[in-house]
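Chain A, query sequence.
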Amino acid sequence: MKKHFIKNKKIVIIGGAGFIGHNLSLELKKLRANITVIDNLKVNNLYSLNHKSSKFPFPKLTKKIVIERLRLLKKNKIKIYKTDARDHKKLHLVLNKIKPNVIIHLAAVSHANKSNIDPHTSFDNSLRTLENSLDYAKNKIEHFVFLSSSMVYGDFKKKIVLEKDICSPKGIYAGLKFSAEQIIKSYGQIFNLPYTIIRPSALYGERCISRRVGQIFIENAINDVSLTVGGDGNEKLDFTYIKDLIQGIICVLKSKKSIQETFNLTYGNSRSINTMLALLKREFPNIKVNYVKRDKFMPVRGTLSNSKAKKLLNYSSRWNLEKGYIRYIKWYKKIFAAS
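Chain A, predicted structure.
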């Protein structure tokens, strides 16, 4: 196998104009990789903002964030093909033109509730796009990287979960992610596809519009809207700042030890939702919080061990909640003030 490196490597990120994708693209560009983004801009992106089915509670702020993503990609001279990865022919035309060394597959509906409400669209944008990517990738690329989710574990059966623990996904979103993992492993068996599967958890960070908990809390606080918490707030999540995930993905791309492996790429220490709320109250002392009945379809989670990534990839998480979430809040305050 060729030695893994990043400089001048032709890397395609499918779904690369989304939250994770654009942040990853910007960081890889700094490392002088040859980055190309493929994205139809229709899922939680520019072309979905004005669609009648969109339900963004703060549309002006959301649009400003999305435009900022695209501006940063353009500023850094990252090529975007506005191609729908659900279209096998069109996707393969673009990939044959680029001839990538690496494909990072991010295309998906990125919210569990949306997947449960509209499973057809979730399947279409998750498994159909994946099959089209894999059909190109077999026998053609050096590395296929897939972003899965901590949701594949279902209800955590112990305090800290390892990659080798049994997965029991709960709900449509988690089921699709776990199905995708199994399909990728099958391509590894049949076509010797060099793959890596990544399981993040409770992501937060700049320019996210996916309605993750950290984003919802800040946007509601800024707009003087009360917060709603499912349960008593003592439930713990392994909150992971986007910069830790991006550095973890870079570790994956650099190391041949990542091939044919699955990694938890998280901070590695769960914190309660009430702890996140307490940090928010430092900046917004007058926010109101309503506690409601917990969604029965959301798995009970906790800490994901990242010891495997530390051992094999030299991964190191650096952004605890106190550091990362406060930085995120201050970023929001800055862009909101400029609105």
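The domain at 10-202+242-266+303-321 is CATH 3.40.50.720 (Rossmann fold). The CA atoms of residues 88 and 132 lie 5 Å apart.
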